[in-house]
Design a protein that fits this description.
heterodimer, A: alpha+beta, five-stranded mixed beta sheet, 5 helices, about 15% strand, globular, B: alpha+beta, five-stranded antiparallel beta sheet, four-stranded antiparallel beta sheet
Chain lengths: ~160, ~280
């Protein structure tokens, strides 16, 4: 129950705080680091809204304690767009394909999908749907999220080929 | 939806971890990947006074082949086992079962030992490990012991582990030559808990007759359930549709799955029978 002093790396910055061990990582990200792009939905690992990347892999931040993140590298949705505000190709594709309506689930979708696209290849619809299956969206019916993911994958693979 | 307060320990070695578990006694709980325990904490269905977090015990995260056997450190992440070339080559049933466990985000964090020690009868890994005749190695300050799946899984959310014992390794023996496998389950949505399922290993001997088979049922009872009568129905026989149907019928004859909002007990029984039939046919193909 004793508070602990931790230093946690998020998006390349470090956040040193004194926290209770029971503090969830999702709450550390939002309330301690002030990064409110990560959304909290169900708080038991079902909805995927709070998905962040831990050492490059998507994980549920509501199923981790903040103290466990020390020594690891975290990445949240705030890190996707460029500093000048240029959207990440995946965000741009969500925008163009209407892959979001209310936007609550979007950060989780983006952080789940983004590591896949880094491979720079095309995906068939089945692969995309499997990759999205861990994230719930109650607005779109998923069709446009699948479209947006395919579009982003296509753009990123042609960009990777051009390089 | 926030965990209750607890004392938090993050040991760096197995020795340190088992010493802490001994010290905490009934009030302590080991935290592995947290994909089942943290939701229980968030719901306050579990309120341990102390957590012994294993995530910094580096010596528990191995995955290796030794003397033909697959040795899985308790903290090996499920995603690692699922994608491991060694496991794929020698024990493909593990990958087949793991692909059905929740979602990649969960498997990135969830561990093999955590799933075993959680002992959820609707979970895929305990069923696959039972079908593969795995040994569960436990350590405490009192010493080491190894348990078979039959002895390890006691009932719903309960294993034979004592409060001071830590599951350190799961060891899977090599499969005989000409052994096929299959894992079938049905769930309402991909990644949900299954309503029922079955894992099968099937070994062919002379004249393609079945020389050994294991059928383990998912969601049929409070533990992964070996259907020994179904296995016997296969032994010495050559596979065909009729035999698969007969073995499936025998395999579920004595089970009484519980019904709930997702399906009645009768429905589940029929469902599990169908899963056994499909898995037996695929494993023997």
């Amino acid at each position: 129950m004793n508070p602990r002093r931790v230093t946690i790396e998020i998006n390349g910055g470090t956040y040193e705080r004194e926290i209770e061990p029971r503090l969830l990582l999702s709450d550390f990200i939002r309330h301690e680091a002030g990064l409110t792009g990560t959304h909290v939905g169900c708080e038991h690992g079902v909805c995927g809204a709070c998905t962040v990347q831990l050492d490059g892999e998507p994980v549920r931040s509501c199923l981790m304690l903040a103290v466990q993140a020390e020594g690891h590298s975290l990445r949240t949705v705030e890190d996707l767009a460029a500093e000048d505000g240029t959207l990440h190709p995946l965000q741009q594709a969500f925008h163009e394909c209407h892959g979001l309506q209310c936007g609550f689930c979007t950060p989780g979708f983006l952080m789940s999908i983004e590591p896949l696209l880094a491979e720079g290849r095309d995906y068939d619809e089945r692969e995309i749907r499997q990759a999205l299956a861990g994230n719930l969206c109650r607005c779109t019916g998923y069709q446009n999220i699948v479209k947006a993911t395919a579009l982003a994958a296509e753009r990123m693979s042609s960009r990777a080929q051009a390089e | 939806m926030k965990p209750p307060p607890f004392d938090y320990h993050d040991p760096r070695s197995i020795d340190e971890a088992v010493a802490l578990l001994a010290e905490c006694g009934d009030e302590g709980k080991a935290l592995a990947g947290g994909q089942s325990l943290v939701p229980l904490l968030n719901f306050r269905l579990a309120q341990p006074a102390a957590l012994v977090d294993l995530n910094r015990v580096a010596e528990l995260s191995y995955l290796r082949r030794r003397d033909g056997r697959l040795q899985i450190g308790a903290m090996c992440r499920q995603a690692r086992l699922e994608l491991s070339p060694v496991a794929k080559e020698g024990w493909p049933l593990l990958g087949a079962g793991l692909a059905l466990v929740a979602h990649p985000q969960i498997r990135n964090r969830g561990t093999v030992g955590g799933s075993a020690a959680h002992s959820d009868p609707a979970a895929e890994l305990p069923v696959a490990l039972t079908a593969l005749d795995a040994r569960f190695k436990a350590r405490s300050v009192r010493g080491d012991r190894a348990l078979s799946a039959d002895d390890f899984f006691v009932t719903h959310l309960t294993t034979a582990l004592e409060p001071d014992e830590l599951l350190v390794e799961i060891e899977v023996p090599a499969l005989p030559e000409r052994t096929g496998h299959a894992f079938h389950e049905y769930s309402r949505r991909h990644g949900d808990f299954a309503l029922g399922g079955a894992a099968v290993t099937y070994t062919k001997g002379d004249g393609d007759r079945c020389s050994a088979a294991r059928i383990v049922l998912l969601g049929a009872a409070d533990v992964p359930l070996r259907a020994r009568d179904g296995e016997q129905a296969l032994e010495g026989q050559v596979m065909n549709e009729e035999l698969a149907r007969e073995a499936a019928k025998v395999a579920v004859r004595d089970i009484e799955p519980t019904g709930d909002i997702h399906g009645s007990g009768d429905y589940r029984k029929r469902l599990i029978e169908a899963m056994v039939r499909r898995a037996v046919l695929e494993a023997a193909a």
